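Before anything else, study the sequence and fold tokens given here and see whether the fold suits the sequence. Record follows:
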Amino acid sequence: MQPSEDVDNGSTIMDLNENIRITFQKLREEDEASISNFLFGLSQQSIYYRFISHNKFTVPKIKEMIATDLSEMKQHNAISLIGSIMDTRQGKETIAMGAYYPEDSNRKAEVAIVVGDIWQRKTIGSFLFKTLAVLAKHNGIAHFTALVCVKNIAMQKVIEKIDLPLLRHVEDALYYYEIDLTAYQ
């Protein structure tokens, strides 16, 4: 499944199945409540795998994260996307987040993705990775870097299944990836 053509505008849709449509959009300030619910709902394992930390989320911490991402988007050409579904009980529900943050040198950006626990292993992470890769390449990024916990087999598969040239080495229980986006079609 590939991102739609509207991805350059920061919006794309993934039809997970006939009943579930996931909308991916650029992060906005008004997404704070939905993101808070999403982050508070993550298991400790998902938090550790994504943030490489056992820290618990607090409302001030989430507000700071959102403000930082919005600032990075404005000042440094970063992209932060949230994946949401419409829930008949709660309205918009965030189920995934992904971002890339340009580094200071050589057209590189660090990529990071987190998918809600009950939504994992449904190709959402792969779709989000591809969407971020399309946006990054369009914005002049030639390489993604990623830090992945060695126990996070699912994210390793997402990166390695994308079928792009990559380098990987391990240090302190983390895989350090460098992914070549120039070969991405």
Summary: The chain has five helices and eight strands. The beta strands are 11-15, 21-26, 79-87, 91-102, 108-115, 143-149, 166-171, 174-180.
